[in-house]
């Protein structure tokens, strides 16, 4: 999976598609398997990135071995009666609806009837303190942006600069389950209910085996495993596996308005997962890239075939848009690799190219304002012209250290490398279509970014023009076998349908 | 040997055993989805800590203590041969009993006062908590007023329980017990009988197998390698769905 953050417009269509299909149920109202966060911001659940609070993910000890931070065999079983790092409903938000019926049924009176918010847990009227996307577009506000854990990587001066109204910048970060290669949720489940599917790498929770020990909620550093308080089971993104098995893209990706999402097969060497997850902090991203295999390499193809990977899947890996973004062009980075789960959702970092400077002027603007309008003591002009067409990556509005804290465990060089490629493709296209950039400038930029005209064209195509079938290369699950992937058809011969035959309700 | 004694100490244990076995099998088979304890920590976490931790560790120790006296009464009696060791055992058991009481009262207050937790409370939760409270109070009362319980339990009640298991209940010893002890025994049978119909079933799925398994789990629903091999019989290549 690759999410191209430069294209995300923060419309939340993905979240709504997911919510309507999967989590519009009692006990799951608060769950957003897909959510879109404003960065800088605290996210959902609040400050999920701060593992001093939530104790998620893996931690590397001095001997170079990795351990679950807040779960695992010893800690999980000792804390089984009360999990000290479990987020509670306040960390997400109390789900609510409105008492709409009152608008219709209120008796005649002097006042307009109102629809009061009602808790979806207790049914009692509540004062709404938080809701879905509560920090949407609120970067720069003291309650949200200033509490972003990633600011720890910035100097106080850099931090303050980001909170200046004129300097403020933000971008959107859509998040779903990363379907990690080294999933902490799987490792933390005492019941063994969570597993990674060999066929497509989707991480699933077997609802019948889950016994509500809730360790996965703690262990997942991305907080993408949720506890359903009504059914007493943990739930998470299933990457719309019924759709994938039928050859469709997941609902969130299918509905993406900005077309930021790419889905494709990536072959990997499972034997080296543990070594990659235990790598030195600075090498995490590179080690993870190392275990992703080249689908055109003959030895890789032979090994995949020997391991029972169908030819159709290998073909899909060769056509995979994600392999190109992640490994071939190295334009994407995983979210918080320092959690050591080897997330397989990669992000093309946002370039935020609109550069602006703020300068004092002579007060010419002020004369145009209405006399009652408030004016600043100083006179400022918001100036978007720069020496260069686009400024250099190092002067980007979003400090590199901030992006590095999100995407590369603090390695600013890795982020700058990705951003330079984004910039180079822009300059290349500008040279090609508008022509106000010199050829020398274009070639030098491409060279500096390690691209050729051919690869720049390919990147441009896959970024801007890619059609549905270019963005989603889902190998056939072999529909004739799809049913058998779920269950042995012989067991249910003669019965109606398959799957749950029991209401997920609690009576005892 | 009066009729109530026969009913409570010779008949009730078998009713309880039947309900326990039959009910557990029935619940696992027909409502396997619900074989767990519905956690409410997500809805309220802080007060839960002060209830659930003393309760669970207390009941773990006290239950294992009863189990030991039942399984190896001689060893317990031998341990109690030294007065100092006897006192240590009694005091330890009593303090863990108090820990259950404190935890249970805390849990009940939380359950009845927190509106969110009330939403996930079922009738059987209330029944079970009242039963457990009565049981703990009777146990503590017994420990206070009929001293050296660990010894007379091992000497008198363990043989009685074994006689039930052998199918020839000998209720002479238990009939002579004072009424709080009798009520405590009856309470135990009742809890045993309602076990499968309450959240207690989570005991049966305690995840101890976690210790033995590797951390990561990958499942191939469909072994393509085996399926493609014509020599593989279908029964070996069939997908697992557990």
Characterize the structure shown:
Chain A has helices at 13-22, 51-54, 73-78, 89-92, 101-105, 156-163, 184-188, 215-219, 241-245, 251-254, 273-277, 284-290, 298-306, 311-318, 321-328, 400-407, 412-433, 439-449, 453-465, 468-471, 479-486; strands at residues 2-4, 35-39, 58-60, 66-68, 96-98, 117-119, 171-175, 194-197, 203-205, 225-228, 233-236, 261-262, 333-334, 346-348, 357-360, 380-383. In chain A, strand 8 (194-197) and strand 9 (203-205) form a beta hairpin. The model of chain A has no long low-confidence stretch (mean pLDDT 87). Chain A has one domain (1-76, 133-350, 388-489): 2-Layer Sandwich (Alpha-Beta Plaits). Helix content of chain A is 31%, strand content 11%. Chain A is of the alpha+beta class and 508 residues long. In chain A, the strands form seven sheets. Chain A has a four-stranded mixed beta sheet. A two-stranded antiparallel sheet of chain A has the order 2-7. Chain B has a single domain (3-209), classed as Up-down Bundle (Fumarate Reductase Cytochrome B subunit), CATH 1.20.950. Helix content of chain B is 69%, strand content 1%. Chain B is built from eleven helices and one strand. In chain B, helix 2 (46-71) packs across helix 3. The mean pLDDT of chain B is 91. At the A-B interface, helix 3, strand 8 and helix 21 of A face helix 2, helix 5, strand 1 and helix 10 of B.
